[in-house]
């Protein structure tokens, strides 16, 4: 296991902890939202701050970056939209009566969840609320979005005639222990998913397979059929709250307050790997090129071989919890409650991992070839034995 060395760059512009870090779809910019009530825009090309968004009256809880616009939500109950070139505030979305927890941008919609027990839908281009989703008994912590076209067959779509105008659905997870699925057009609750006995902290959606995964303070991850609402599987091996989830190639990675990450094979529910070494809760995780990167409450980021579970590197330097990580062009970005954004070079780890994967594929290829030759030999021997018996 290699040591961390030092970060390529440490950005100290914020005057308060960084609560979230968002990467633009084109990978050219990063957005940080902070306890100091501001957001900052960073270039991934030169790692310089190119924008400072000021206007919120309290701390920023979450942020989201598109290629042309930035979005921030705050404890001041508002959401703001910003021009990434000029830094100008383009819109203020007002309506929530408590702290905004999460925002999600999909198509022309902006979705938000709040401590006021509601989720809301806004027009991205106008400061106008389109819909309010009311029904949770406690705060809405996490959001997901999909279209019924992605999951429903034609005959099933016909059953939802009243929703034909818009087939978009919003999924909300709450501290009331439930997950709800809503029709965006009407605000009507389509499904309430019951089973968790603790707050729902994270959601991840696999629309093509009609599956939704939810992580909770009840120490479990549950899989749901998002069409029928049926609970499919319960993953029970964690000994603490499930804080974050990542889904890659039918493998589900879960980060927990029990100081571990676990990898599960979705199709069987089997736990196939546990990643240890954290000295505090696992707050965030990201899969990249066969490597699992984690951020923890122990102020360290780590890199694990995703297949073997071997710890490959520890990134030390932060003073407090790492709240979010992003990866772009073989650089790791870590945002912490200590107010810094740190940038780490991960080319060496990625290169070693690529060589290892290539070697493994080569060995598997030779094994497969040997197996084919062995089967061919056995078949020939079998034919000879059969021939001798006939004679």
Automatic annotation (TrEMBL):
Q: Which InterPro entries match?
A: Quino_amine_DH_bsu (IPR011044), WD40/YVTN_repeat-like_dom_sf (IPR015943), WD40_PAC1 (IPR020472), WD40_repeat_CS (IPR019775), WD40_repeat_dom_sf (IPR036322), WD40_rpt (IPR001680), WDR86-like (IPR044715)
Record's keyword annotation contains Repeat: yes
Keyword annotations for this protein? Repeat, WD repeat
WD repeat ranges, renumbered to this chain: 11-43, 93-132, 169-192, 193-234, 235-274, 315-347
Q: Which domain of life is it from?
A: Eukaryota
Q: What Pfam families does this protein's entry cite?
A: WD40
**PANTHER family given in the database record:** PTHR44489, WD REPEAT DOMAIN 86
Which protein is depicted?
Answer: WDR86 protein
Originating species: Rhadina sibilatrix
Corresponding gene?
Answer: Wdr86
